[in-house]
Specification:
381 residues; alpha+beta; seven-stranded antiparallel β-sheet
Length: 381
Amino acid sequence: MQPQSLNIAGIGKGFGADDVLKGIDLSIRPGEFLSLVGMSGCGKSTLLRIIAGLETADRGTVSIGSRDVTDVDPSDRNLAMVFQSYALYPHMTVRDNIATPLRMRRLSVWSRLPLIGRMIANAEMLREIDASVKEAADVLQIGHLLDRRPAQLSGGQRQRVALARALVRSPSAFLMDEPLSNLDAKLRAHMRGELTNLHSRLGATFIYVTHDQIEAMTMSDRIALMSEGRIEQLGTPDELYRRPSTLTVARFIGTPSINLLPVELDASGEIVLFGQKLGITARNAWPGPATLGIRAEDVFPAADGIEASLVRTETQGADRFVTFNLICDPSISIVMRQRVGDDLGADADGNVRLAFSKEGVHLFGSDEKRREITVHEQVPA
């Protein structure tokens, strides 16, 4: 299987008066695992269906390798799609479900008939199909299930059958539309590892649609985070987490969600939080309101910090997430991540002073775009 690149240029799509995709440009490298992630309605599934040929774009082009497939039928694009619903034939065995794409492509209509098909079909072709089915089943570790029907399988097993049916075609790329969303949390976590291992073994190009940022962060080489029909940011999971380009990206990526505080920029670009200068200057910024973003792991108790009141504590294994309301503005909450057993530093009333790592600060202007900052050794007078 030779992995292929995919190139999407200027793709636009509307349904009635609604512009669902607003000029998408995206290049996917051969053998890359790229996730399209975003809230429901952002256009990610529509984009995947356009790549597959199941939807027609109003404008723009789709290319696989050097081949323009914009007007090519879905069956001639050599792309395999895995759906959320698995889309298995309930009356067929696992073996027949996996073999169906090959039989449709390689056998005549008469040779596909259930009773006389094997008598009139090319014997060598049937052996090749059976061998391909067994190989795909072995890769997905479902060889022992080939004679069962979908109703006899668990959700995870059905998903593997759907993957095997895609794999058996040796496609140029795999397109996956929220394939794990019907599974329970434990099985979903297990299947994330299975998909990552499958991608590593095959070296194939994967395009994966999900609204679950944990799936995207744990499996992807790169992530295209979409919002309102546009790509907000394209980059590695680490880039989206550590350097979000907009407030939308900062809010979406990360668990728990990033802490956001209203600040002001003075005439020199200095960040002012509740009347206190922080010793951080925004570069190439103008005076006015802005937003400070701080991850939970960059918050810690400190004697000279902002006073806050304890709201609740949530323990998750070795870590705990502690939520506070600010005393000066109780409508603003801050979440701090700590190791279980670390001192909160709270007084008898449950109040604590909180500070944060300046190196972990994210600043967003009034246009919600990221601003670069400079951290000073000392707070300017």
